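Annex B.
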Amino acid sequence: FHRGYYIRARAVDHCVQDFLRKTQSHPRTQILSLGAGFDSLYFRLKDLGLLHHTVVYEVDFPNVACQKATLIKRMKELSALVGDTGGEGLGVITFSGEDYKLLGVDLSELSELERALEEAGLDNEIPTLFIAEVVLTYMENRRSDALIQWAAERFSKACFLLYEQMHPEDPFGRVMQQHFSQLNSALLSLAQYPDCEAQQRRFFEKGWTECSVMDMNEFFTCCTPEDEQRRVQALEPFDEYEEWHLKCSHYFVLTASKGMEPSWTPLLSSMTVPHRDGPVRMAGSITAAVCAMHSETSGLRRYGHCSVLIKPNVILTTGGFGEEDGQHCRMRNFHVLIKHAGCWKAGCVKKENPCKRWDERLYHTVSCLSNSLALVVGGRTSPSSAGLGMLWLKLPETCGASDPDDITVELISMQPAAEPAALRWRHSTTEALFKGEKYLFVYGGRSAMEPVLGDWYFLHAQELSCTVIPVEGPVPESRHSHSACSWKGGVLIAGGLGAAEQPLGSVFFLKELEHGFQWQTVETHPPLIPRYSHTAHVHDGKLLLVGGVWFHSSSVPGITVIDLMTGLCLDYEINVEHLEWPLMLHNHSSVFLPDEKELLLIGGGGNCFSFGTHLNPEPVSLSLSNILTSH
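tRNA wybutosine-synthesizing protein 4: predicted structure tokens.
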């Protein structure tokens, strides 16, 4: 929430202050804030001494304008800044100062608006900045279009600043739309203007000669100085990267102008001009189906968890945040899925030694070392607390034949021999072989002290002691929320979120050599689209990347298949027409069943900014036989 509202205010301030700087040589300028609500922009600009020759006009419904006028009059500091001239209460003008006019009028009634602005002293011939911050989308398109066209036609030197939602049809967009519909405030512009390109065309067609637009991920990366980015990232404990980036990919800032000399382009005069990729080229689609289940699966509505295939047709899911006993919380219970006669049955696992420290952890890893023994590494409770170390999970040898609800898992605390390796989360733990011995390779992640880690440890699988094994080659940049898979005795690392909170598109192979290991770069063609919070599997020389978050806001990640022999990289979209709910593929887990070439997606989702929490309600099955044979 804090970051989401920060970036909105930052974008508006950036563009408004740019307008004021670029028009300093003009004797008079004006700002017209449409649907201003209780925005404090005027008072901030005035307090900063930026309104030497600028009048600010604010327009909103009469009842809102009257309430705001009352608030201003009540507060001495605000009244003093305005310098009240006593002109309030005259018709639609609810408050009037020398450089501040507050008008109560309905924006959708254009002739009424024009008359009120004329009465308040708005001048059509001087540089004018129009601000519409999440306003036009609540109006019928014909009325908001008319307003955009009117501003271009009636004002000789005009600039427009628009901040609004977009991408209504992807999973996050569907949750966003549903939220506003439930508030009886439907987002009316989204069907006709669903993305940046449509909004840009809209402004050109309505008479504007310059128009730039970017989503808020681009704005934060390209228009926010790096020291300011670092300041914001360090302000408070933070571990909601997926929600933040998805929120930013569903809002845009647009600036348009006409008649301005020089041109007003505040989004292009920034540090870096962003490279906007075209649409992702899809090689095909894979149909998602709800898993055939014998029992209900409410315990699998969670994110930040871990699911692992203990033995054929038996999946253990632990940890994460989700729904338990009717409330959202960190998950205490473990769940098992067992497949019988083509159907899965879910059950809640009993814990032996429940007093042992499970700590309801998120973003941990679970590695199966035998049919009955699994190792939990890392994870967290709060992002401000230290990582949670290691834990053994002991399962019955016969758990595949049991009813899921009859299975008991024993929790066994660990000696702290390898604690430094385990005090992390959003890391990976992957099996590797060296000189015929089995090791667990713990790599990357983050901790309470370090927002991103690039170190690694080799844990001997039997003794769980840290072993020093030489590693040569170019060291990958630090990352968390990446994927890691065992392959040919080594480890494949793909994607992740890097030090500047930017998704990474690199793929590395940690290859076994005679005397140690070597990092090797895996080149992909075309280059892999940077992503994180995905899952991954290797099958028959192909690396499968599943879901995740990327900044490519024209679509959401589906399945990417990388041929490890040739480097060929193909993207497949997931067809969700048979699902009755949005499928969010971040913070999920996935299990690949090689015999059936079937991928099981479990959980996933999270908070959707202020629009509510969405957790995928049921496990989903994807048949990959077509793409794995034809690829």
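The mean pLDDT is 91. Residues 2-22 form the longest helix (21 residues). Further annotation is deferred to the next reporting cycle.
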